Amino acid sequence: MTDLSLGAKPTAQPSKTLETFESPTTTRDFHIHMEIPEFTCLCPKTGQPDFAVIYLDYIPDQLCVELKSLKLYMWSFRDEGCFHEAVTNRILDDLVAATQPKFMRVTAKFYVRGGVFTNVIAEHRKPGWQPQPRVELTQFESQSNIRG
């Protein structure tokens, strides 16, 4: 284990490179949901930090996004001035370019600033792709598998 207090430098660095891997199955649609609760960028007007939770939902075609590269990609916005609407659409565009999914939605929920919460939702749909009809199943309570 490396002790960073002794002057060692972390090896991971922010990056705009998104890596992918082959989807484990292309015979059915499946939904991937990710929550990125520590997204930060800078207000382009004041330079103050903006904080958001980014929700990524997608149905892959041939490729999935690799998680470490996604973390480093999200980190790369930390020192950039970005309007909420622009950064949400840029994230979607970059992820679509890397993975070419059947469907992708990026939801950015920015924390309050000046008494205003901002939520931005951007979507991509592969031409000709239609979702399967939704099947409603019985809902289970949270932690229903815990004995006690």
Summarize this structure briefly:
It is found in: Cytoplasm. The chain has two helices and six strands, in the order ββββααββ.
Keywords:
single chain, 148 residues, alpha+beta, GTP Cyclohydrolase I, domain 2, 2 helices, 33% strand, globular
What does this structure look like?
The protein has helices spanning 67-75, 84-99, and strands at 20-22, 32-42, 49-59, 63-65, 103-113, 116-125. By secondary structure, it is α+β, with helices and mostly antiparallel strands. 17% of the residues lie in helices and 33% in strands. The protein is globular, with a radius of gyration of 18 Å. The N and C termini lie far apart (37 Å). It has a four-stranded antiparallel β-sheet, with helices on one face. A two-stranded antiparallel sheet has the order 1-4. The relative contact order is 0.19. The chain has a domain at 35-125: GTP Cyclohydrolase I, domain 2 (2-Layer Sandwich). One of its GO terms (biological process) is tRNA queuosine(34) biosynthetic process. Belongs to the GTP cyclohydrolase I family. QueF type 1 subfamily. Its main location: cytoplasm.
What is the strand and helix layout of this fold?
Blueprint: E1 20-22, E2 32-42, E3 49-59, E4 63-65, H1 67-75, H2 84-99, E5 103-113, E6 116-125
Antiparallel strand pairs: 1-4, 2-3, 3-5, 5-6
